[in-house]
Amino acid sequence: MIDTHLHILPGVDDGPKTIEEAVALARVLVQDGIHTAVATPHYNDLFPHCSALEIKERVTELQQMLDHQEIPLRLYSGHEVLIKPGLIEDIEAGRLATLNGSRYLLLELWNDSWLPATEQVIFELRAFGITPILAHAERSRIFEKDLGRLTSLLRQGVLIQITASSLVGMQGRTTQSIAEMLLKRGLVHCIASDAHGLRRRPPAIEQSLRQVVRVMGQVKTQQLVEGCPSKIINNVPYGQ
Length: 240
Prior knowledge:
Elements: E1 2-6, H1 19-31, E2 36-39, E3 42-43, H2 52-68, E4 74-77, E5 80-82, H3 87-92, E6 104-108, H4 118-127, E7 131-134, H5 141-145, H6 147-155, E8 159-163, H7 173-184, E9 190-192, H8 205-216, H9 218-233
Parallel strand pairs: 1-2, 2-4, 3-5, 5-6, 6-7, 7-8, 8-9
């Protein structure tokens, strides 16, 4: 599996606090079958902003530690950005990192409210050549009430990502049912861990993917956890 949503950098956001916790998380991810991951610390007003360059440097430091301990996890850099106007300017100024410097941006919406400028922000990103990947879509109460908003974003070229642990009820039963519904309707492009640590929001990859295989089959599951994510980190247009 290639994980395109992961909070593993120590002391950056609400992920691991120490390098030891980050290394322990990396070990479990590898045990669960993840060989490549994008570190995606939050980019919002709750945490100090680390620039794209700073995130890349922190990824390099952690990668060196993993290599030293012979943990076979390859890390790339990115951000998980909370939607707001002005994202193009943040990308151009080097404040905001796309996933491994690609055309793909991990975008987070408000869970319980709808930013009126949502469609305009996404239009501007698409016009700039950026493909937004909507993080943990199954957690949005907006989509629970109005699935048409999600399908409208799909028509704009947005890709949909869901969190593995949602599929085994770790985010609540409602979130689990929405995640399963999105899978069954073929609205999901990739699955990620969105792991923050081993105690708080653990990866839960192995048991989650068993559930996906039961719902989608082995071939489709592989597309969700490696096919699409491979295109993302290698900057290949989706659909090619």
